[in-house]
UniProtKB/TrEMBL annotation:
Segments traversing the membrane: 12-34, 77-101, 113-145
Family label: Belongs to the ABC transporter superfamily. Belongs to the binding-protein-dependent transport system permease family.
Lineage of origin: Bacteria, Bacillati, Actinomycetota, Actinomycetes, Kitasatosporales
Segments forming domain ABC transporter: 295-543
Database matches in Pfam families: ABC_tran, BPD_transp_1, oligo_HPY
Residue ranges of the region described as Disordered: 271-290
Biased composition (Pro residues): 276-287
Protein known as: Dipeptide/oligopeptide/nickel ABC transporter permease/ATP-binding protein
Organism: Streptomyces poriferorum
Amino acid sequence: MCLPSGFRRSPIAWATAFMLASLVALAVAGPMVWGAAADRPDPSVVLRGPSAAHPFGTDGLGRDLLARVLTATRPSLLLALAAVLLGAGSGIIVGSCTAVLGRRGRRLTAGMINLLLAFPALLVAMFLAVVFGAGTAGAVLALAAAGVPGFARLAQTLAAGVAGTDHLAAARVLGLRRHRLLWRHVLPNIAEPLLLSATTAAGTTLVALSGLSFLGLGVQPPGYDWGLLLSQGLDRIYAEPLPALAPGLAVLYAALAFQLLGEALAGSVARRGPAPRAPAPTPPPSGPAEDGLVLQVEDLTVELPTPGGTIQPVRGVSLSLRPGEAVGLVGESGSGKTLTALALADLHPHGARVSRRTLRLLGADLAALTPKERDRHLATGLSMIFQNPASALNPSLRIGTQLTEAVRAHRGTSRAQATAEAADALRRVALSPALLRSRPYQLSGGQRQRVMIAAGLMTRPGLIIADEPTTALDVTVQRQITRLLTDIRRDTSAALLFISHDIALVGEFCERVLVMYAGTIVEAVPADRLADGARHPYTRALVASVPDLAADRGRPLPTIGGGPPDPLVPAPGCPFEPRCPRRQDHCAEQAPPWQDFDATHRVACWHPEPVTAVLKTVARS
């Protein structure tokens, strides 16, 4: 059996594996090895205490108690697992159905679950065992029915997180029936925590089943399990405690094994998610520093492992920003813009490998800092405004808590002082300090975005990275956010890296524009030349795709033909060559060098567009 790496490294997991293996071995071999001795009466040794021949003593018919305890492993475990499977299966189906039922059915099912949870599970099991009749089948059915409400509530809670997803809504639109929605779209997304819960519940069910047998409501003679053996040995506990303790210890051993299995699996699952990154090799010292730069990056590369091989979504990116400067980063979806920003902030995905020749922030070489120093420098010198503030803000925490935690953690600011600074940050973004007591879901989209900007200002960063900060906002709020960022740059001299798909907005808002394609920057152009002075064919195509009021409504909007290159099979030449109208044979064989037209305008192209070819003017408002 292949166990997760985190499971294999845990000493508790090794102990759990040993305990489970011993239980399985006893359940398989017990009846075959000790079954005859467990059922053979011997009137000459009735009710004997422990001895060399009978280590646990004998019962009222002279049968060996050690053999009976070992043989009882199989029925005890099988009955407990059967009860868990029946209860968990029924409860999971009932609870997860709330994600696919209509409004009335969902309310009725939720009400039924709430009603059943009002009764203690053990009392329900005892009552149902009497109703079903004392015996093996009655005990299993009673425990299964008593476990249904707990699993139903857990499945209902987990299914609620799937019910509002886009993929389930799309499946509904496609007309899939409810049973297919349940089996294909709901259960696969909630299976893991439910399996962990069922594993832990097996130990509890084993104890409950033994309790029913102890009370005479479970397994009946001539059959036996650990609970019945415990009941039969209880009369002798003062004279001979071992015949009563032995089956009790067996119940404890098995229940502990199942509980530890659940804990070990849960810990392994937790480590698979936010697992600490493996220590990366120490990067070489950065190249020479350039004075007056807030950010200096040279030859930044990001590698991502995939099932098909390693890809490089970011390749050889170099850029720099000066205090108070706004630089736009544009390109199609998947061109590597966001991943570049995440790599700069050391927020790249787990498993990604980042390399660079130079990475300096506010004059500090990040490669020369210890991990703790680098984290602190990034937390105070750089802030990020994410594309979706609804997911970037914690819905369970108040705005005040989320604004103050960074300065309290990295600057040692007192609670009162941090709250005062948070109120001032909200005023700076034109929000009332009264929102400090609000939670994110109580705010509009524009307010949440302003809160994100306010959070970034709390540490007084030298660099602000805004990743699509206006994508989900209407035009009016979009303009308010861009004016706010302009005011912040003017007041704080912070540099701004503005990532966007909106070519018109970038051309108006930024001073320089970096155009990215297939993970690399293909042109750096002043914003005032973006409309009619861009030289790279890709940049020209992006500008031409921007609609304006003068466009002919009878003709389709211009688009860029073809698609981006396959990241698993990078081309040796220009990545834009298959889609370029000016391509030549050598464009597919060798990567184009940089051509400098002046100090602020560079392009990586073998055949740049002539400067006289004016396409159109980017719409400005």
